[in-house]
Write a structure and sequence with these properties.
The protein is an all-alpha fold. The protein has one domain (about 25-95). It has helices spanning about 10-20, 30-40, 45-55, 65-75, 80-95. The chain is globular and about 35 Å long.
């Protein structure tokens, strides 16, 4: 059996990028799975960017995507970031 030195999240990100390069449109479930994977592999800095990319691709955030973001930040003891994320996102929606 051949072992790879590439982390599973890197493999997933590579597949994700190839899918986008080929012009395939991804759904919010795919974005949520990748965001959740980044949280599980401690790559928290990537999550907000990916969330914003999901919105740019015309996928509206839903209960699942917000739950993943809030839960992920809180599990990483970054509840302050969780609060800032929610505040930032709701101000975008409601123009406050």
């Amino acid at each position: 059996m051949v072992q790879s030195n590439i982390k599973p999240s890197h493999k997933a990100h590579k597949v994700f990028q190839l899918t986008l390069q080929r012009g395939l449109k991804l759904d919010s479930v795919t974005y949520c799975a990748l965001i959740d994977g980044y949280f599980h592999t401690k790559q928290v800095s990537e999550t907000a960017t990916l969330f914003d990319d999901m919105v740019k691709m015309c996928w509206k955030p839903n209960v699942q995507s917000y739950t993943i973001m809030i839960d992920g930040y809180c599990n990483e003891q970054k509840s302050g970031q969780s609060f800032c994320f929610v505040q930032r996102d709701t101000s975008k929606k409601f123009g406050s």
